[in-house]
Amino acid sequence: MEPRTSSRTVTRKPRDLRPRGVPEFAFTEADVRQVSSTLGEPAWLLERRLAAWTRYRATPMPTLKDEAWRRTDLSGFPASGAARRPAEDLPVDRELLQPLTGQPGSALMVLRPGFAPQKDGAADQGVLLLDWATAVRDHPDWLREHLGSVVSDGEGKFASLAAALAEDAVVVYVPPGIEASQPLHSILWAPARQGVHLSRVLVVLGRGSSLTYVHEAASPTEAAGQAIHAGIVEIKLDEGARLTFVELQSWGEHVWNITHERARLGRDAALNWIFGAVGSHLTKNFTEIDLAGQGGEGRMSGFYFADGDQHLDHDTQQNHLAPNGTSDLLFKGALLDRSRSVWQGMIYVAPGAQKTDGYQANRNLVLSPHARADSIPGLEILADDVRCTHGATVGQLEAEPIFYLMSRGLPRREAERLVVDGFFAPVLERVPFEGVRERFARMIDMKMSRGQ
Amino acid sequence: MKKPITPSQAPAAGVRRVAVGELVDVLCDHNEDGERVRGWLQGVVVQANYKLVAVQFLEDVYLTDGWMVPDRILFCQQGADNIRPSTRRRVRRARARRR
User: Fold this and answer.
1) pLDDT-derived band at A56, boundaries 50, 70, 90
2) Average pLDDT over residues A24-48
3) To the nearest whole angstrom, how far is the Cα of A429 from the nearest Cα of chain B?
């Protein structure tokens, strides 16, 4: 008798990497001129906007063929017909107005596209928290010196777009030697079903100064809408300056959010950069730390939680450009439903950047069989006396701790929630503010309760 | 030596947290007059941190699917709805008679 064999044909569908056309925006040079003239900008600023516009026109829309965009598909990007329009007149979510890092009364600025900026509280003596119009009017020379000095206008398609057409911006300056005791807080609140919002953040800390700054970008979810945000965040720390920067993103789940962010650290400067991302339909975030001066210290702690069909893509780079620099990155994320995350990290050590100490880790918790996390660490080391380590993991909830907690009377939901909390604990421990930790805990609660 | 508290272990404002040695009532399955009921039962907190509380009971307690918890210790989350400070004084169990 012949042995019985079972035959099974496995077919694997090749991934479709053909570049699909990503639609272009319908903006024109006239829009750039109109933005500049409405804001009453000087000639040099208009020239810069026009130069950025030229770069924007010369740069093609990114596709899956571009290395940085290989895992983030913009084929459904709602650019065609999208127009700049004011935000809807909805009051700011009250939770956003809560002070996250300090006592009530510290300086707060709310930017709402199409509306006058709303300011509250007071910053320390000498510390500036300005909206765009005020910075252009009162500090044009300073602005000319620093704007675009960290993130160039030609950094990418969307950086050029933001540089050409951004109308909303936060400008922060701490003069040399000032140690700001009061934290600053800014909120970009842009409720809109459709439309494009473009923003800039510019933070400059003078020599030996210090600051804690929280910037949030948020909007409510509009079920039937599709909106776009593109932004630039530039941070410049002079010698010995210290900044704790908390950046929270809770865009509505109809928003396509693309940002270019970079911090440049001078000699012995220190940056503690904390990210939290739970919103948007799609996020592509380029974040870089340039340790340009000897002995710089950069710490990045990221928290993200996606559900539904959200796609969160964080592209981080730790550039060691001078000796004795330290960088330490930890990004942790959880994924529910059909969501997807991408983390692509790189530690670059330039020739001569000896005694560098670089670390990067990305941990993902996949809570649904349909969710997916891509984690791609990278090292590029061109010096010979360095220590660089990296790690990346993608895992699922373990049955054993859940069972243990359930055997002690906790319902499954609570047990899973506790294990998820435990997963995020290492990154929350790096956050020195109780208010921020509580916000993250509420974000976890919100996502977990939606996932039940 | 006392273990230092890390920032994320600091209690959040607004949540009433219980400590070791406190008497608490926990909403759980237990026996009352020979019948299994779901209700408030007094126990003592034997371990607590910023997130969880372990409560020791004198009577048998059960999981909702019916299993008895052998050491009579249940866990609750700090500030959860199914745990509250006990309003009654300690209930003394009758001493076993000496032989």
Assistant:
1) very high
2) 93
3) 5
> What interface predicted TM-score (ipTM) does this complex get?
0.76
Q: Where are the domains of chain B?
A: 19-85
Q: Which residue has the higher pLDDT, A388 or A442?
A: A388
Going through B1-99 in order, the beta strands assigned E by DSSP cover 23-32, 35-48, 52-56, 61-62, 73-77, 83-85
Q: Which residues contact A393 (CB under 8 A, 6 or more apart)?
A: A362, A363, A364, A375
From CA B55, how far away is CA B53, in angstroms rounded? 6
Rounded Cα distance, A396 and A349, in Å: 33
What pLDDT shows up at residue B65? 81
* Whole-number Cα distances in Å, A174 to A116, A141, A263, B97: 24, 16, 15, 77
> Any residues with CB less than 8 A from the CB of A337 and at least 6 apart, and which?
A307, A308, A309, A368, A370, A371, A451
Q: Which of the pair, A25 or A201, is modelled with greater confidence?
A: A201
Q: How far is A198 from chain B (nearest CA, A)?
A: 34
Confidence class of residue A239 from pLDDT cuts 50, 70 and 90?
Answer: very high
Amino acid at the residue A235: I
Contact status of B8 with chain A (Cβ, < 8 Å)? yes
Report pLDDT digits (tens) over A395-408.
999 999 999 999 99
- The percentage of chain A sitting over the pLDDT mark of 70, rounded to a whole number, equals 94
What are the pLDDT digits (tens) for A132-163?
999 999 999 999 999 999 999 989 999 999 99
- CB contacts of A437 in chain B (<8 Å) are 7-8
Which of A308, A314, A249, A262 shows the shortest CA–CA distance to A284? Answer: A314
Query: Which of A409, A414, A432 is opposite residue B69, by nearest beta carbon?
Result: A409
